[in-house]
Amino acid sequence: MATTTVRLPRVLEPAVGAVREVTVSGATVQEALADLCAQHPTLTVRLFDEAGELRRHVLCIHNAQATRLTQPEPLADGDELAILPAVSGGSGDGRFEHRR
Amino acid sequence: MTTLAVGTDKGAWLLHSDDQRSWAVDGPLFPGWGVTAFGRAADGTYLAATGSGWFGPGVHRSPDLHAWDQVAAGPAFGDSGPRLEQIWTFTTSLDGRVFCGVAEAGVFVSDDHGVTWEPLRAFNGHPTRAAWQPGAGGMCAHRVLLDGDRMWVAASAIGVFRSDDAGATFVPRNDGVEGAVPDGEPGIGYCVHAVVADPANADVIWRQDHKGVYRTDDGGDSWERIERGLPAGFGFPIARDDASGALFVVPLAADENRVPVDGRFAAWRSLDGGDSWSVAGKGWPDEPTYTSVLRGAIATDGDGGVYLGSTGGELWATADAGDTWQRLPGRYPRIATVALV
């Protein structure tokens, strides 16, 4: 089982405080993110919707490649993981999916 | 001291005043995040709802308005239900339950001051739900009114539902209101934008609807239109100063043109329970102002204080039930919610 570090963006501060990096373990990217959410349960609703899908405007970067987690991705020691806000989604239209 | 919490598309601010004339601005809270509602639990815990185009909606708790913790088990429909899009309102009952109205239309209840939440199944799973249709503003449960075992839920674009058994069952209560959906399902298809009740007589409820302004004197069994003097029936917020009984709305030209009529930005006031309306006092901008006030961006303190936040990011306040208005310091992002905390 690989151990790696997930980098988190500053915008997630309301969910996890000042944490920027979390050491996680897992044989796959999916397992690593599950460990991330186990360590920081507030991230579960921030990264995933109620169907368990990665939120539409959240990027998960695995070794410089974006992944939508559609299939298990093996994780090796030294791999890099990062959560990023996509360049889309920041206007609020994703939050207020239906405007008043 | 008066503290006004202002939630915007990009963060929240607190405005403090000892005299309701000079104000100190504190913030931002949740920088970069949408802040869509504030509330207060019975144990004094402050509640805030955030939303993010990236990271979705969530509930936060604070003992002091500055140190906030997001709750892990916030409102959620579950993986087979509707999606939680936005948190619209917190309402705390006299016995300490916190009700949270959300989009897609639903209500959740917390019995531990906002730490955990359970669905209000009789509303969320109402037999008419399959026929609920969103309007331009989506489909959100944005107001919960409470009176003992009675409860009203106002949901756009569905209508007002009343429970007479502490939330065990709900029945649509919209007779007399013009429907928003032609030939819609009986009882639903009414686009209520906001409601406010008389705390001394919960049977009396005023309603800013997509199709006009209404009042009920029988708990929602029947509604009558009350628009005499208004420049337009369309608008979003409605509020009441309980000390004076004054009602406030902010009329907008029309559904398809959601700006003040002729750029005349002002609240309109009724001093006779909604029978007639006129511009509320003095102090409004002289220049054309084509901004509006969203349904959550109005607050009253029950003692003559009324506070409005505009889509242009300006705050307006009166301390004398609407006779005179002043603009509060600062210009903010689009204001979604204003609350006295």
User: What is the count of distinct domains of chain A?
Assistant: 1
**Beta fraction of the residues of chain B?**
35-45%
Number of separate strands of chain A: 5
Q: What is the CATH fold-level name of chain A?
A: Ubiquitin-like (UB roll)
Structural class call of chain B reads mainly beta
Structure class of chain A: alpha+beta
Q: Main sheet of chain A, how many strands, which sense, barrel?
A: 5 strands, mixed
Mean pLDDT of chain A: 89
Poorly predicted parts of chain A? 94-100
Task: State the CATH superfamily name of chain A.
Answer: Beta-grasp domain
Total helical elements of chain A: 3
Along the chain, the helix and strand elements of chain B come as EEEEEEEEEEEHEEEEEEEEEEEEEEEEE
- Give the oligomeric state of the chains in this entry, treating copies of one chain as homo and distinct chains as hetero: heterodimer
The number of strands of chain B is 28
Residue share in helix of chain B: under 10%
CATH architecture of chain A: Roll
Low-confidence stretches of chain B: none
SSE succession of chain A: EHEHHEEE
Beta-strand proportion of chain A: 25-35%
Biggest sheet record of chain B: 4 strands, antiparallel
Q: What characteristic shape of chain A results from the CA principal axes?
A: globular
Overview of this protein structure:
- The complex is a heterodimer of chains A (100) and B (341).
- By secondary structure, chain A is α+β, with helices and mostly antiparallel strands.
- Chain A has one domain: Roll (Ubiquitin-like (UB roll)), CATH 3.10.20.
- Helices cover 21% and strands 26% of the residues of chain A.
- Chain A is built from 3 helices and 5 strands.
- Chain A has a 5-stranded mixed sheet.
- In chain A, β3 and β4 form a beta hairpin.
- By secondary structure, chain B is an all-beta fold.
- Chain B has a domain of 131 residues.
- Chain B is built from 1 helix and 28 strands.
- In chain B, the strands form 7 sheets. A 4-stranded antiparallel sheet of chain B has the order 3-2-1-28, with no helix packed on it.
- In chain B, a hairpin with a 2-residue loop joins β17 and β18.
- The longest helix of chain B has 4 residues.
- The mean pLDDT of chain B is 96.
- Chains A and B meet through α3 of A and loops of B.
